[in-house]
Structure formats: C-alpha cells, structure tokens
Design goal:
The chain is mainly alpha-helical. About 75% of the residues lie in helices and about 0% in strands. The longest helix has about 45 residues, at about 50-95.
C-alpha cells in the first residue's frame, strides 16, 4: 500500500480560500459586466447611446470573460492541490485500500459522466476519514455538491446557447448569465466552509502513526 506523508493544510488551505474567494468575485464580475452591457443596450434602443458605446460594452464582457477563464485555470490548480493533500492526510489517518486515492480525488473531476458523483464520493471519504467521530457528512455538504453539479449543467446549457440576433432578446440572454453568476456563490460559499474546516482540523502526526 502506498505510504503517504501527513501535511499541514494551513498554507494550502489558505491559498484555496483565496482562490475560491477570487472565483466567487470573478463570477460576480462577469454578472456585473453583463449588467453593464444590458444598461448600454437599453440606452442604445432608446437612442441615448451610440454604436461605439455598444461596441465598448461588448469588449468589456469579452475581456472580463478572458480574465475569468485565466483565473479559472489557477483556481483548479490551487483547489486541486488542496483536495489532493486533504485526501492524502485522510489516507494517513485512516488507511483504507478500498478508498479513492488522493490522485483520483482530483482526477475524477475531469472524467465525463463520472464527475457527477465520483468527486463527491472522494470528498465524502476524505471528510469521514478525517473526522472519525462521525459516520455521515453535514446536510450542507450534500447541498454543496448538488449546487455544484446544477451550476455546471447550467453553464453547459448557457455555453451552447447562440446569441440572439436582435438587441431586445440579447437583454434576456445576458440576464441568464447574470443569474448564473450570482447562483455560483452558493457552491463557492459551501466549498469555502469545507476548506476552512479541513484546514483547521488539527491532528498530531505522532498520534497518526501511534
């Protein structure tokens, strides 16, 4: 069986908190960009904005989207490392040859179809093996995963939508992205709770190997 080393999660957890908070802010930033564009579109329809303002609003949304995608890559790296280390610590504290390995605790997020439940199974195992005094996860833990899956499905649907050909309909198109950005705060906040609790779970390595 692979031997793992116990790792202090204070540093990785702090970075994961910053990354997840930045992600939540980026979602709000995207929503704000779409709100701004809708305001410009309404002004354009009413005749108080020109083509240059409309083009500028489109550039704002485009640049905000690019920054968001770059940040998303960083968030996946930072949070993936935290999940890996938390799973590895759980394997040290409660060895189980049948449990999902630390590598797959992260890897399942990238596997289509299976990523609807396997990452949750891995996180649940990490939680239960870390806190051996309980045999179940909190109710909000389940809500975190359900909201995460739901918002990913919403994003896939929005990503497949073709932009409307007329400005009035474009306002409704933007509103869908605005709502999505705000709703992403739910899984982001709950994941922050998971990070904080796992980060602050203090264990004496000497006791782990006793």
């Amino acid at each position: 069986m692979t031997q793992y080393e116990f790792t202090d999660l204070s540093g990785p957890g702090r970075r994961a908190i910053w990354a997840t908070s930045a992600y939540a802010c980026a979602q709000l930033g995207l929503s704000a960009a779409h709100v701004y564009q809708n305001a410009v579109i309404r002004r354009y329809i009413s005749g108080t904005a020109d083509d240059a303002a409309l083009l500028q609003s489109d550039n704002v949304v485009g640049m905000t989207s690019i920054v968001f995608l770059l940040l998303l890559i960083l968030v996946f790296i930072v949070n993936g490392r935290f999940i890996y280390l938390a799973s590895r610590n759980a394997a040290v504290m409660t060895p189980d040859s049948q449990a999902i390995t630390p590598g797959w605790a992260v890897g399942w997020f990238a596997v289509p179809i299976a990523n609807f439940w396997m990452p949750y199974k891995a996180m649940k195992e990490t939680w239960l093996r870390t806190f051996k005094t309980t045999d179940t996860v909190p109710g909000w833990f389940v809500i975190w995963w359900l909201s995460w899956v739901a918002m990913n499905i919403v994003d896939q649907v929005l990503g497949r939508m073709s932009p409307p050909n007329n400005l009035p309909d474009y306002i409704g198109y933007n509103q869908a992205f605005i709502v999505s950005g705000v709703l992403w705060l739910i899984p982001a906040y709950l994941f922050l709770r998971i990070i904080r609790i796992l980060k602050e779970a203090k264990h004496n390595p000497a006791e782990v190997f006793a």
